[in-house]
Amino acid sequence: MSQLLAAQVARAAPPWNVSAWINSDRPLVLADLRGRVVALHAFQMLCPGCVSHGIPQAQRIAAQFRPEQVSVVGLHSVFEHHDAMGPVSLAAFLYEYRVRFPVAIDEAGVGTPIPRTMEAYQMRGTPTLILLDKQGRLRLHAFGRPEDMAVGAAIATLLAEPYDAASDLAERGDAADVATGPMTPPACDDDGCSV
């Protein structure tokens, strides 16, 4: 698993580019989640590692921590089999797997199969777990199958950090643009699907 980044070197999380929300009565934006740790779980419903490891881990995080302390947000980031993983199929999938936390549908990329939020966060594939601290900074970026104990320790560390709303406002800035490299075909195994 990736190491937890120190607050001093962490960068502001880019905004989410979302076409729709499921399990939320309104669109969520990062500013609404300030003061909480955010566990952003990127997945595809046809990714074996997402179904067997990623989504259950996100559900365990949601069950373990109080929602006013840790917000779990799903991000359906489809970079393959686009026609098979539309919003209607996703809604049925989330219902059947009893996913109750909010899930964003990542906006389609322009001229690329990679969705916009996935690209902005430089995700290597699915499942990806991203932890944001209370100030909305990227503190952990883990592709594949991070161990529950390590994830829990990282969340506990972020929860223990103080949150000063006034300092948070002073630190806010625009996220940097992300350059992309050459595309390779997606590949899936038991732990995940890489871009």
Structure write-up:
The protein contains five helices and nine strands, in the order E-E-H-E-H-E-H-E-E-E-H-H-E-E. It has a domain at 34-137: 3-Layer(aba) Sandwich (Glutaredoxin). Strand 8 and strand 9 (192-194) form a beta hairpin. By secondary structure, the protein is α+β, with helices and mostly antiparallel strands. It has helices spanning 48-64, 87-96, 116-120, 148-160, 165-171; strands at residues 18-22, 37-43, 70-76, 103-106, 125-126, 128-132, 138-143, 187-189, 192-194. Helix content is 27%, strand content 22%. 37% of the residues are buried. The radius of gyration is 16 Å and the shape is globular.
What would a concise description of this structure say?
The chain is an alpha+beta fold and 195 residues long. The chain contains five helices and nine strands, in the order ββαβαβαβββααββ.
Structural class determined from secondary elements: alpha+beta
Roughly how many Å is the radius of gyration?
A: 16 Å
Order of helical and strand elements? EEHEHEHEEEHHEE
Query: How far is the N terminus from the C terminus?
Result: 18 Å
Instruction: Give the integer mean of the pLDDT values.
Output: 86
CATH class of the domain at 34-137: Alpha Beta
CATH topology of the domain at 34-137: Glutaredoxin
Strand content: 15-25%
CATH superfamily of the domain at 34-137: Glutaredoxin
Work out the helix count: 5
